[in-house]
Design goal:
DNA_brk_join_enz, Integrase_catalytic, three-stranded antiparallel sheet, 3 strands, DNA recombination, mainly alpha, single chain, hpI Integrase, Chain A, about 50% helix, DNA binding, Integrase, globular
Length: about 200
């Protein structure tokens, strides 16, 4: 397994900070419904583009307030066989309202065929293009962080800064190893100031 990092070898951030995440979300709201909900889903779930394009109406729990994702990283059970892992990620009610309005989730859940059809009929590469375009519109500076992975890392950093326990973050992000999740506890800058401020209260 390659080591996950939040900075490149030159010390440049590989994640979106709080200000950039807010700007991304604001820019996404100016986009057509398909692109807006796509960006909001990545923002609020921290999922990978390959996981996003598998989301169907059946995996959206409007009353329970979650989106269920299939973890695509390979896992093996105790007998060595590949296993499928699903995770339910809590999301804001306002986001679910937008998703339902834009894609008719509640109605689609009444049809067996529609409930199992992906919400976004796109490739992983196309998702990346949309995200990068929205980030550019949001005024996010060019760099290695201006990509879907930077958004995913930003989700992890934000959760840590807001005091989410690492075992919950591990579950929501679909990490097999807590050591991978723990890297978000090394956040610095504004995010570290927010964490430290809890000691000063």
């Amino acid at each position: 397994m390659s080591e996950m990092r939040l900075y490149d070898t030159d010390g440049n951030r590989l994640y979106l900070n709080a200000e950039e995440r807010a700007a991304f979300l604001a820019a996404a709201k100016r986009r057509p419904a398909r692109d807006r909900t796509l960006c909001e889903t990545l923002h609020f779930t921290g999922c990978r583009p390959s996981e996003l394009i598998e989301i169907t109406p059946a995996r959206v729990d409007l009353s329970g307030g979650t989106v269920t994702l299939r973890t695509l990283k390979k896992r093996k059970d105790s007998s060595g066989y590949q296993k499928t892992v699903f995770r339910a990620v809590p999301v804001p009610p306002e986001y679910l309202d937008t998703l339902n309005t834009a894609h008719g989730i509640r109605e689609a859940q009444k049809s067996y065929k529609r409930m199992s059809t992906p919400i976004w009929d796109l490739t992983r590469q196309r998702v990346g293009q949309i995200v990068k375009a929205v980030m550019k519109e949001a005024g996010i500076a060019e760099g290695k962080h201006r990509c879907p992975k930077g958004l995913r890392h930003g989700y992890g950093i934000n959760a840590t800064a807001k005091g989410i326990q690492l075992h919950m973050l591990q579950k929501w992000m679909g990490h097999a190893d807590m050591k991978v999740t723990a890297i978000y506890a090394t956040a610095i800058g504004q995010e570290e100031q927010e964490i430290a401020a809890r000691m000063w209260d």
